[in-house]
Specification:
This protein is mainly β. The protein has strands spanning 4-7, 10-13, 18-24, 29-35, 42-47, 54-56, 64-69, 74-79, 88-95, 109-110, 114-119.
């Protein structure tokens, strides 16, 4: 059984940085998704178990960085140059896959989410 616990969300201003974390048990690929009220869940970033392969959604490329520390069983999402449109609940998800997928349907395990709010 894979357990996922997100932390690090909060309220920041536009242009600020924030790092959210996901405590992830299991030898899995991990993805970050986000969902704003009334919108579909959106792929943000994904990382393979080895950390060698990383993928990003178009809206966050160049601003967000995903990384992991397997010794700490933790995956990080560093978010820079935050915009009000980044406001959403952020979820980490895990799958026993070599390559992280970009669709929510490719993940079997989900965390409870952490709220990120960016004020203008």
């Amino acid at each position: 059984q894979v357990q996922l616990v997100e932390s690090g969300g909060g309220l920041v201003q536009a242009g600020d940085s924030l790092r959210v974390s996901c405590a992830a048990s299991g030898r899995t690929s991990v993805g970050w998704f986000r969902q704003a009220p009334g919108k579909e869940r959106e792929f943000v970033a994904g990382i393979s178990w080895s950390g060698v392969s990383t993928y990003y959604g178009e809206s966050v490329k160049g601003r967000f960085t995903i990384s992991r520390d397997n010794a700490k069983n933790t995956v990080y999402l560093q978010m820079n140059s935050l915009k009000p449109e980044d406001t959403a609940a952020y979820y980490c998800a895990a799958a026993f896959a070599v390559v992280p997928g970009t669709s929510p349907h490719e993940y079997d395990y989900w965390g409870q989410g952490t709220q990120v709010t960016v004020s203008s």
